[in-house]
């Protein structure tokens, strides 16, 4: 049976990415060797990492003066690398969920952290909008898409200090005004590649301004100067990322992806809003385009498990909500076809009509 993969991460990849990655595992770039067994300094792999950076820049229209790094450690490593490299005295953070609060915890090891606002009071079901960022902050950190709670900041904020954003789960779902940011980072396993590589888009001139000593591997300047090749980079996930980037270009780039993503999400939210038994969990204006969180209304609450089982008979996988929200979460990353959303909506209607 065809599977409809709604997992939140690691998550669905395009067929193009999977097929080309599988091929490179067998025979990479006509070398007669697997990509898993040749030097990362070979001319064949060097070409891959250079092209991956170039395609990032092209697709996101990244201006001069920025580099794209491919590092290990996951987005979680960036929670400490960011303040290590960027926080001199004080930084401001917006607390919009689990990932933001983890970033805040790490930043506190390096200096004063001003949490300008938090939506924790309502279980992170909205994005705070009334707050001021102190002008003497070294940066303002946001999580643009809250993968667990299903809220999103779908625009580039105007603030009086440099922005730093965790875009793990909504990168490549809309055009970004990169020049507003000093750093944009994310784990690849949501909308780009298999787990194991973390992308960091960094403005070169923003580096080197903190007074502390930084361990070599945690210093962005190390990776900038070595083109992400200071040590052995995660070669296979980088190769897969390049395949996804090529597929994004074939699809028409981020503007085209944005249209498709917004249409898929609108369809599913409409189905939830017009349902007798389901309801969305977050403030409608802050709804995520990538992770749609919903539950059953109180009268039907005990049927949630039954719906997950019913959906699985239609090939639908990965819709069980995160334990901190419950209910359901359908992740609609770029590689998820609209037909899978249609199958989910049909399953929701069929289940409802049987009651
Ligand atoms: C998944 C996720 C993370 C954690 O990523 P790792 O690569 O597992 O460290 C951080 N931030 C956001 C927004 C995420 O969705």
Can you characterise this structure?
- The chain has 355 residues and is of the alpha/beta class.
- Helices cover 35% and strands 17% of the residues.
- It is built from 9 helices and 14 strands.
- The strands form 4 sheets. A 7-stranded mixed beta sheet has the order 2-10-9-8-5-3-4, sandwiched between helices. Strands 11-12-14 form a 3-stranded antiparallel beta sheet, covered by helices on one side.
- α4 links the parallel β3 and β4 (112-118).
- α3 packs parallel to α4 (98-107), α6 crosses α7 (253-273) and α7 runs parallel beside α9 (338-354).
- The longest helix is centred in the last third of the chain and has 21 residues, at 253-273.
- The model has no long low-confidence stretch (mean pLDDT 98).
- Pyridoxal-5'-phosphate (PLP) is lined by residues 9, 74-76, 99, 143, 147, 166, 168-169, 187, 190.
């Amino acid at each position: 049976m065809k599977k409809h993969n709604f997992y939140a991460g690691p998550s669905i990849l395009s067929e193009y990415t999977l097929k080309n990655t599988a091929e490179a595992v067998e025979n990479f770039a006509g070398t007669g060797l697997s990509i898993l067994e040749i030097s990362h300094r070979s001319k064949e792999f060097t070409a891959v990492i250079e092209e991956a950076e170039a395609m990032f820049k092209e697709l996101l229209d990244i201006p001069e003066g920025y580099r794209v790094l491919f590092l290990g450690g996951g987005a979680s490593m960036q929670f400490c690398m960011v303040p290590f490299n960027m926080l001199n005295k004080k930084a401001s953070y917006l607390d919009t969920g689990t990932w933001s609060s983890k970033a805040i915890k790490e930043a506190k090891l390096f200096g004063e952290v001003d949490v300008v606002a938090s939506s924790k009071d309502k279980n992170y079901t909205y994005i705070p909008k009334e707050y001021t960022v102190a002008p003497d902050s070294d940066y303002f950190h946001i999580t643009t898409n809250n993968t667990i709670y299903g809220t999103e900041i779908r625009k580039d904020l105007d603030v009086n200090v440099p922005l730093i954003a965790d875009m793990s789960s909504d990168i490549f779902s809309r055009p970004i005004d990169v020049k507003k940011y000093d750093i944009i980072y994310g784990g690849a396993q949501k909308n780009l590649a298999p787990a194991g590589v973390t992308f960091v888009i960094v403005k070169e001139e923003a580096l080197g301004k903190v007074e502390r000593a930084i361990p070599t591997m945690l210093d962005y300047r190390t990776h900038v100067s070595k083109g992400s090749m200071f040590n052995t980079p995660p070669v296979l996930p980088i190769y897969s990322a390049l395949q996804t980037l090529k597929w994004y270009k074939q699809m028409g780039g981020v503007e085209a992806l944005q249209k498709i993503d917004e249409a898929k999400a609108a369809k599913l939210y409409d189905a939830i809003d017009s349902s007798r038994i389901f309801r969305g969990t977050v403030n409608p204006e802050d709804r995520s385009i990538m992770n749609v969180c919903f539950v059953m209304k109180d009268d039907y609450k005990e049927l949630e498990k039954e719906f997950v089982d019913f959906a699985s008979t239609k090939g639908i996988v990965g819709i069980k909500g995160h334990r901190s929200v419950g209910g359901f979460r359908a992740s609609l990353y770029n590689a998820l076809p609209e037909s899978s959303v249609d199958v989910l909506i049909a399953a929701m209607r069929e289940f409802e009509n049987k009651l």
